[in-house]
Amino acid sequence: MKKHDQNNKSYSKESARVNTPVVRSESSPFVAQQSVHSGKPVRKKKKNGTKKFHIYVAILFVWLIAVTCVILYGYRKFNTFLVDYESSYQSSRPELVMAEVFTHFEAHDIDYIWQNMPEHPTVSQFENEDAIKAYMLSMLEGKTLTYVESGEYTADRPCYTVEADGYVVGTVALTRVGQKEYGNPIWALSDISFPVLPLEGAMITLPSNSTVYINGIQLDDTYITEQIPVEEDELQYVEPYGGTIPGFTSYAVSGLYFEPSVEVRDYTGELCPVEYNADFDRYRAEYSTNHPERETLEQFGIDFTTTFANVISMDADISELDPYFPPDSLALNYISRSTALRYFTGHGAVTIQNQEVQEFIAYNEDTVYMQVYIEQEMQMWPDPEIVPTTTHIYLTRINGEWQISGMRY
Question: What SS3 class is residue 222?
Fold first, then answer.
């Protein structure tokens, strides 16, 4: 009986399972469906993996955002680093310092260049620092200035060559004085080299009793290069009577930056003319024409030459020449023995004209040379005739009086 009841219960459960309608729950994501083949109701299980997928997507999204933020932050930091590094690097280039130094060359700022030269050019006693600076300025003015890296350029010591119209006029060296961020160096001017060569000089020849001045400074004996004596043929006209004729002295000066000013003063202290011979590159001053008694001596020479001409033309006696010569004068003796005194064309009255001292040389206070010219207008038949006479006389102060110590023919 119990067995039957159990079967019935079993049957009743099967019948209930078959006949009980399937209720679809709206809240469930799963829908019960009947099997097409078996006719038995089938219910799909819920998919728990979908929930896990949504959580993964959310986590991935957040991770991507975080990574993106990190990348953007890193990019900004790296970009800032690059900008700062580039700025630091560019500002540390030696070219920038050189460009600043070069502006002083372009501005012809010689004082700046001079102050940064560790060694200054040598200056002689005839010039000064201003002369050298002026010479340096002349090397820059009116020139096209440029600069390039020199052959001695190194990463530790940048060097540049400054050129004017393609010629080197100076070098600039830089030195490291510190370090910026990122290890970039700080450069500064180390020194400037501005080589200048003193190529000018002067060679001067002048009478030995004169003095020469270079740029206002008198040359002493250390600058003498040659002593040129007077020829004996000329000394014979004055030496027997105590007269002297100075020779010539040559001087030489070098190591100048500019062509010098050359002045010569004679034995009286007066300035003398100085001539420059470009072919020999030499200055020369001749004997002085200055003498305290020049007017008196010139009149003495004219009077003598007039008397001498009249003696030759037999219009005056030879004795009239005696006051002009010292006793036992060889020159007077030669005149008295001249055959010109024995033969001269007959003529009428004589008039002296065109008296002129053509040359006057004062060797010193006691010895003078003159070339004197006069003309005699003689009455001859049928027309008057002009007879010129030129004398070359040496005058020497003998016992306080001027006399003719010699004549040159």
Answer: helix
Give the CA-trace dihedral at 171, 177, 178, 182, to 10 degrees.
Answer: 10
pLDDT digits 0-9 by tens, 386-397: 999 999 999 999
Q: What is the DSSP pairing of strand 211-214 with strand 271-272?
A: unpaired
**DSSP string for residues in 54-100:** HHHHHHHHHHHHHHHHHHHHHHHHHHHHHHHHHHHHHHT-HHHHHHH
Would the pTM count as exceeding 0.85? Answer: no
160 Cβ neighbours under 8 A, 6+ residues apart: 98, 147, 148, 149, 150, 153, 171, 172, 173
Across the range 158-175, mean pLDDT stands at 96
As a whole number of angstroms, the distance between CA 402 and CA 286 comes to 23
The string of DSSP letters for 295-346 reads HHHHHHHHHHHHHHHHHHTTSS-GGGGGGGS-TT-HHHHHHHT-GGGT----
Q: Mind listing the pLDDT tens digit for each residue in 211-247?
A: 999 999 999 999 999 999 999 999 999 999 999 999 9
DSSP 237-277: TTGGGT-----EEEEEEEEESSPPPEEEE-TTS-EE--EEE
Which helix (H) or strand (E) covers residue 106, if one does? helix 94-106
CA gap 147, 180 in Å, rounded: 26
pLDDT > 70: percent of the chain: 82
Do residues 273 and 283 touch, judged by C-beta distance below 8 A? no
